Amino acid sequence: MSAARKRLLLGAFLMNTPSHILGGGWRHPDAQQLRYNELSLWTDLAKRLEEAAFDTLFLADVVGVYGDHDGGWASHVRRGLQVPSNDPLVLASALAAVTDKLGLAFTSSVVQAHPFQFARQLSTLDHLTNGRVGWNIVTSVLENAHRNFGATSLVAHDDRYEWAEEYVDVAYRLWEGSWDRDAVLADKAGDFADPAKVNKIGFEGHTYKVDGPHLVTPSPQGTPYLFQAGSSDRGRRFAAKHAEATFLFAPHPEYVAKQVASLRALEAEAGRTRGSVKVFAGLHVLVGSTEAEVSRKLDEFEEYLDLDAIVAHIGGGIGVDLGGLPLDATLADVETEGARGVLEALFAAVPNGNPTIADVARYRARGQLVAGTPESVADELERWQDAGTDGINLINFRLPGTYIDFIEGALPELRRRGLAQSSYGEGATLRERLGDTVGDGQIAADHPAARHRGAFSHLSAAATNLQKQGHRA
Amino acid sequence: MSAARKRLLLGAFLMNTPSHILGGGWRHPDAQQLRYNELSLWTDLAKRLEEAAFDTLFLADVVGVYGDHDGGWASHVRRGLQVPSNDPLVLASALAAVTDKLGLAFTSSVVQAHPFQFARQLSTLDHLTNGRVGWNIVTSVLENAHRNFGATSLVAHDDRYEWAEEYVDVAYRLWEGSWDRDAVLADKAGDFADPAKVNKIGFEGHTYKVDGPHLVTPSPQGTPYLFQAGSSDRGRRFAAKHAEATFLFAPHPEYVAKQVASLRALEAEAGRTRGSVKVFAGLHVLVGSTEAEVSRKLDEFEEYLDLDAIVAHIGGGIGVDLGGLPLDATLADVETEGARGVLEALFAAVPNGNPTIADVARYRARGQLVAGTPESVADELERWQDAGTDGINLINFRLPGTYIDFIEGALPELRRRGLAQSSYGEGATLRERLGDTVGDGQIAADHPAARHRGAFSHLSAAATNLQKQGHRA
Predict the structure, then answer these.
(1) CA nearest A216 in B: which residue?
(2) d(C-alpha B239, C-alpha B325), whole Å
(3) Cβ distance of B215 and A63 shorter than 8 Å
């Protein structure tokens, strides 16, 4: 035990839906997930997280129903498995008004919003929150998501990442290059802004054509804090290039260590400083004040955990229907056409010999579980930290109970060890708080967004006017 | 004076920008428009409006810079003329958390958000606000707006309305037809929802292809309360068919009377009950406790009003560059190519003989002005009401001063006459409150949205599953 430990960054991993990750949790007598449409569920929780000095409230998202389970999507509806899925931007914006320090991060896919619109919305929210916005960049793996936005099928994996490259490129230009940071004068006796410092971006790419200027002045962070959670090779290269924090589900700390090593190498390839990308692990912490209480809570967890929902989540996410099979089916019983590699890895990860589907689901749900007394939870989190984990994104089984238990049960011990902060640092923005620094809140100079600063002054309002008047004369 | 008067509906017409309509107002010493990026400007105002029992806080929007003035867009930037233009959905969502009764309405154009995304965001917000959301449907008249979203030029006027017809059609299907209102069971001992009552929409139109299901359960209002402000023939037909309230700028009550008569005829053509569409007039109320105070405030108004900004707003909106001309130029001096009709109407509306551009701007700014003591303001508003005005949307010159003055100065007298409410009615939703009724909050049965109720049950999750399993067997 060491008081000199660096703290773990701390996020609450949420979704505005009845059932996020740990299927069946909503059926627990204390669970309030069914109130997901009610603002007070979220404002009360956000205020509680802020009192506890959490770094972020992180809202996951999907924009379609999961792939088939047992021949269709009926079972997803019965279980509320990420359907409904309410809009996280709207919820994060509402939470802006009841919080002051808490970071508000959320997922948004390139399929769902045009980058001009999206960049504008994030800049607006970054202003309203004084620089507390984070964006988790995703490309949507669900076919239905693509079919909700005009496609006839799922866009191919690598094409989605090319699309995402262009998407963030547009957004970076708007965030970093359209308005010079000293463009606004706000002079009641003079001008609102200097037209020589407000620039169109004149972007013409493969998918997008965007004139500009950005409709929002530079916000406290400029580019919002960037999360990305790619797990494929292409996805991890994207994360190494663009993310300021990456987020993964790891079955054990050794897995994190392996991922971190690979990430550091990819960072170098992308020309970024080693350690630029912080690593968050998604964990479900179950804490009890005694071993007996832990044991009772574990029994409850097992009682309410819906293994078939976990299976539906896994299969629906990778596009392989694992429903309609008995829970004791093994890999040999599954139709693996087109997804053999993914499925083999899934089953092979389970330590016991010839695992069943139920074992895979249990391993998934249990792998994210850190259960124990405050001391043993802290010991375990130290192991995750030693493996290279910078932060944890806390998954919930019960809302708000999982977080209340963590705050009351685990946080005091984590603070004693230096693993958690008791109050927010001095940095004004989310970026500074997550870096435990005080700076200007801007994205690092070696990040690809930064190269657009000052790049468009030839397209300023003043330059454009002169040009037009020239043509006219 | 009659205590039996029906009340006027009351909205605050705002925009998250330095300079909305009455150009130059932001330069007034008391004006706080320059704080437009700060959340507290808006939360304080929203709470104040709610205390005063305003019906709505209405956020206007543009998604591009106005058309050229004096050869470009530099003067718009200097004046903050609707640039920057922050996102109203984000602001309305933030205001949801600090209000309980106030309606939150905002403009969103068909160009800026895909209808699947937009419908989801509005449903989410309608849940979080317990049914207080209004949408002002627009098609974007600004060329730059279209160029920000991939177009190479402004989409033609009537094509924009066809686009809007398809857009609302998609949204209506999602709001009214995708989830049956009794689909959600929320049964901890059973299912979250009944898959036989959750339906895809399978939409394939000219512009959009949307699979569904809607990702949000039916919200308190289902379809949010619909505003529309079309002023062209095509626009007014669209309003008569789709709007529950329309919004116009009228230079005098007689203009309202003419518009209302025409609207009632169009309502009948669209198959809707006479009087379905409420009429809001945009007015700038300037109230003083004495004639001397009114006179002093009028002098200030004249002092800070920026006539050239009004000209830029008019010309930039219709796509005719009226800049670079002296303020005493007349119609004969203006290059009217391609916009003769609009320009002739603009100048012809001004009562004096051969008006100058300054006269046009002054007439525009003055036509929206109701100035006087509380008694004379109330008398004047009675004239607007007698002409068929159902509500007023209050334009501001100073934020929040214009509204504080109105609340403190004008409201007591309006309440004495029955022209304004002192507290909110019993209806739970914005739709009920604006109708002064208590009902189910749903859109009227003769509105085109209503015909999609129950229309997609053949595409329910349960039906789709059976079909797929059939194919499989």
Answers:
(1) B84
(2) 36
(3) yes
